[in-house]
Amino acid sequence: MKDYQIIQKIYESANSSVYRAIVKPENKPIILKILKENYPTPSELTRYKQEYEVTRSLNTDGVIKAYNLQRYENSLVMFLEDFGGESLKLLMPERQFTLKEFLYIAIKTTESLGLFTLPILYTKILTPLISFIIQKPNNLKSSILVFPPVYHEKIRQLVILND
Q: Which DSSP helix (H) or strand (E) runs through 99?
């Protein structure tokens, strides 16, 4: 990954690590989501490809854009939009949100999930959801970064139904 300079790790799960990086030639910010396994199984690679396809198919303002999926050594790396946001999970202990900011984030997250028509998904997907926001005076943006793998097939079916 010689064309990318990793700035910071922003999230880690059992299966992947998410980094904020810079594309060196263009000095463009990007999010890199990399499988942790050096030698992932075929089923892990398939799941990761499905995650990329699901994220790419959700072409909405409230979901981070998936740009590309490439092989990296013996694994895969996903290239995602970086709009400069910070993890809501990390910001909440550090910062007291005003009522206006809290409502904005809640509304934007709800709007992002608006494409889902199965009510059962709402209660189960919100807990493990990774939401990012950008903090600029009078300019908040909220975007969803990760949908848990257990929901990929349901989301894919909903996207097909909504097309």
A: helix 99-112
What tokens were used for 156? 């894919």
Low-confidence residues in the chain, pLDDT < 50: 117-130, 133-137, 158-163
Q: Residue 15: which of 146, 127, 109 has the closest Cα?
A: 146
Give the span between the Cα atoms of 153 and 82, in whole angstroms.
25
For 17, 18, 70, 118, 162, the CA distances from 36, given in Å and listed in that order, are 6, 10, 15, 32, 33
Q: In terms of CATH, what superfamily is 4-80?
A: Phosphorylase Kinase; domain 1 (3.30.200.20)
Starting at the edge strand that comes first in sequence, how are the strands of the sheet with 86-87 ordered?
86-87, 130-136, 139-146
Which of 4, 11, 5, 7 is closest to 144 using CA atoms?
11
Asked if residue 133 lies in contact with residue 85, where contact means CB atoms within 8 angstroms, the answer is yes
pLDDT value at residue 152 = 53
- This model's pTM is above 0.90: no
| 14 SS3 class | coil
Q: Could you tell me the residue ranges of all domains in the chain?
A: 4-80, 86-162
